[in-house]
Amino acid sequence: MSVTAPRGFRAAGVAAGLKASGAADIALVVNDGPDAGVAGVFTANRVKAAPVLWTQQVVRGGVVRAVVLNSGGANACTGPAGFSDTHATAEHTAAALTASSPRRLLGAGEVAVCSTGLIGERLPMPKLLPGVRTAIRGLARDGGAAAAEAIMTTDTRPKTTVANGSGWTVGGMAKGAGMLAPAMATMLCVLTTDAVAGPDTLDAALRAATRVTFDRIDSDGCMSTNDTVLLLASGASGIGPTEAELTAVVTAACHDLAQQLIADAEGATKQIAIDVVGAASEDDAVEVGRSVARNNLVKTALFGNDPNWGRILAAVGTTSAAFEPDGLDVAVNGIWVCRAGAAAEDRSKVDLAGRDVTIRIDLHAGDAAATIWTNDLSHAYVHENSAYST
Amino acid sequence: MSVTAPRGFRAAGVAAGLKASGAADIALVVNDGPDAGVAGVFTANRVKAAPVLWTQQVVRGGVVRAVVLNSGGANACTGPAGFSDTHATAEHTAAALTASSPRRLLGAGEVAVCSTGLIGERLPMPKLLPGVRTAIRGLARDGGAAAAEAIMTTDTRPKTTVANGSGWTVGGMAKGAGMLAPAMATMLCVLTTDAVAGPDTLDAALRAATRVTFDRIDSDGCMSTNDTVLLLASGASGIGPTEAELTAVVTAACHDLAQQLIADAEGATKQIAIDVVGAASEDDAVEVGRSVARNNLVKTALFGNDPNWGRILAAVGTTSAAFEPDGLDVAVNGIWVCRAGAAAEDRSKVDLAGRDVTIRIDLHAGDAAATIWTNDLSHAYVHENSAYST
C-alpha cells in the first residue's frame, strides 16, 4: 500500500515519456490533510540537484501538500536553467491541482519536487508537464503501488513499506540501487503518516530514524546529488503519538526500506551486515563499519566467496577508531577467523554459499556498537555502471 | 639495471618455493658501501605487518647494509609469532652475509625486511631461510633485474628505474598492482644511490619525492599493511649532491616507478590522470583528485568509455575543498564537457578509445594544483580480486 496506506493521501504513477523504455516515470503524492506537516533530510553532497535546492526551501516553509517525483533524469548539474525547470514543475503542479479541486488553493511553495536519473542533462519539460496533469487525473487512494513503480531507475523492483502505530500508520516508498552511500544513498523516499504531529516532532523522528537506517547503508561509497527523504503528515487519524512512538514507527519503516535498497543494489550477489562491537563510541563503530563496507578488496573477496579476513583488518587499520591492532577479533558468518589480530579458526570452516553474510568485528575498546549494511562488488556492478549513460 | 645501477650495490632474486608457481620469490639487495645510509617511508595503516614494524626500527637505527624481500606472503596479522619470523629472517641474513664475507661484520639490526602477498598467514620459514642463503650465493653487480622479478605478486611485469645525477645515480625497483592507495600503495620499493648523503638529506629527499609520486597514485582506495619505500645510499660515487639535487633525481625515479605501478594496476584498461587546478591550496587539490580517483562510479564509467562528468561532479561535491558548485569546470581528454557546473561541450566529442585519460577539474578557487593518477574499475579487477586467496 506504500504511501497511501495512511489516511489522507492519494498517489499516482504514470508514464510521460521521460524514460526511453516507456515505463512509468512520474509519481505524485498528495496530502489531503487536514494537516500538511513535513520534515525532510537531504544529501550531504555539496553538489546538489535543482530539486534538492528547491525542496529544501519548501520544507523550510513547513507545509507540503504535494510531492512530484520523476525518474528518467536527475536534473543535477543543470545550472540556473535546471532550477527554473524545477520551479516550473512546482508551479504547474500547484496550478493543475488547484484547478482539479478548486476548494483548496495550492501554491508552488507547498509542492516538493524530487528527480532521479542521469546527472547533467536537462529534463524534457514538454513531456514532463503534461505527465504531471495525467498523474493528477490518476490520483487515487490506492495509488501508492503505482507511484513506487514510477520512481524506479536501475531498481529491479519497487520498494514500499507500511508500519503501524496505535490507530495511526506510516507508509513509504523508496528508490535506489547504486550510488548508495551516506548521507544519503542515491535514493528518493517519501514517507507518509496520518498521525497528528507538529513540525519539530516530525523533524526529530525523521532524523532519528534516518541516522540509524539510510545513513548506515553503503552500497558503493558514492554519495548522490539528489538524495531526499520526506515525511508528510496528514493528521487524518486524529491521534497524536509521542515523539518516541512516532520515532519508533518511522524507524521501522525506514529500516524496512533501507534493507530493500541494499537487497536490490546493482549487481549484488551478497547482502552483508557489518556488526562492529566493543567500540569506544558509536562514532568509532560506524567509522570502522563504513571503512570495511567501502573496501573494494573486501567486497570483491566476498563476491568470490573468500573469507579474506586480512583485507578486513587492513580496512579497519585505516580508521582513527580506538583499538589495538593485536587486539582485533573478526568473525565471518560466526567463525572467528581472527583473534587478537592473527589467524584463529580455519577459514575453510566459513560457509559463504548463501546470500547473507555477517561480519562481526570486536574492537575490544568499549561497549558501543553499530551495524553497517552493504553488498559485494560484482561483475554485474561493473557492467551496469560502465554502460549507464551511453 | 634497477637497484644495481648505482655503484656499491649487489642484488639477487631466487625461487625458494614460497610461491606455488615456482617463480622467484626472494630478493636481496646488499649495500657494499662505503656508506650505509638509509631513509624509509612506511604505510600509514595502523595494522602494520611484522616486517614493517621491524624495518621501521632498523631505519631508525640509521644503518642498513641489506634488504631482504619476499613475495608469496605478507607476514601481516600474524601476531608475535610473525614478528619472530621477521626477526629470524634478519638474524639469518646477517649471519649468512657475515659468513660469506667475513671482513665485514653485519648485525640483524642492519637488515631491513619486506614482505608481500596474502595477509594473515605465517611464512614457511623452512623454505625462506635456505632461500636467503641461495640469494646470498647469487648476489651480483647486475642482479637488479632478477631482484625486481622476485618481488612481483599480481604484477604482470617487473618495475625498475634509473635516474642520473651529475656523476651519481639513483636506481630502483618496485612491486604493486592492487591495494594501491596512499600512504602508500600496496607496494614495496627499494631505491639505491651511490651519492654521498647524510641521513637527514636522505630522509628529506625521500619524503619530498614520495609525497608527490607514490602518495598520489590511488588504484583502488585500499591501503595496505606492508607498504615500504627504502632509499639506500652507498656513497660509492664520492659525490655529495645538494638536497635539492638529490630530491629532484629521487623524485624522477619515484615518478617513473609510480607510473609503472598504475600502468600495471590489476585489470586496468585505462590509465587516468586527474589534474585539479584552480584550487585554494594543494591539499584541496589532492583531496578533490583523490575523491574522484576513488569513486567507483567514475571508474566504471571510464571502463565503459563513458565521459559521465556528472559522476565527477558528484565526487567533487563530497569534499571539503573550497569551490562553488556552480563554478566548476571539467574537461575529459581536452573537451570541456562541464562549465560553471552544467553541461557545456557535447560529451560525444570526447574520445575515450585510447588507454590514457586526462580529467581536468578547475575549481576556480585559487592558484594551487595537483595531479592524482588512477585507473579504471574493470571486470578483470573484480575477477582477480575475487579469486586471490582461494
What would you say this structure looks like, in words?
Chains A, B: Catalyzes two activities which are involved in the cyclic version of arginine biosynthesis: the synthesis of N-acetylglutamate from glutamate and acetyl-CoA as the acetyl donor, and of ornithine by transacetylation between N(2)-acetylornithine and glutamate. Chains A, B: This is Arginine biosynthesis bifunctional protein ArgJ. Chains A, B: It is found in: Cytoplasm. Two copies of one chain form a homodimer. Chain A is α+β, with helices and mostly antiparallel strands and 390 residues long. Chain A is 32% helix and 24% strand. The longest helix of chain A is centred in the first third of the chain and has 22 residues. Chains A and B meet through helix 2, helix 8, helix 9, strand 15 and helix 10 of A and helix 2, helix 8, helix 9, strand 15 and helix 10 of B.
Keywords:
homodimer; 390 residues; alpha+beta; L-amino peptidase D-ALA esterase/amidase; Ubiquitin-like (UB roll); six-stranded mixed sheet; acyltransferase (chains A, B)
Give the SSE order of chain A as H and E letters: EEEHEHEHHEEEEEHEHEHHHEEEEEH
Q: What CATH architecture of the largest domain in chain A would you give?
A: 4-Layer Sandwich
The side-by-side strand order for the widest beta sheet of chain A comes to 15-14-13-16-12-17
Distance between the termini of chain A: 35 Å
Mean pLDDT of chain A: 90
Main beta sheet of chain A, described?
6 strands, mixed
Q: Number of helix segments of chain A?
A: 10
**Rounded radius of gyration of chain A (Å):** 22 Å
Helix content of chain A: 25-40%
Taken together, the total number of domains of chain A comes to 2
Per CATH, the class of the largest domain in chain A reads Alpha Beta
Instruction: Note the quaternary state here.
Output: homodimer
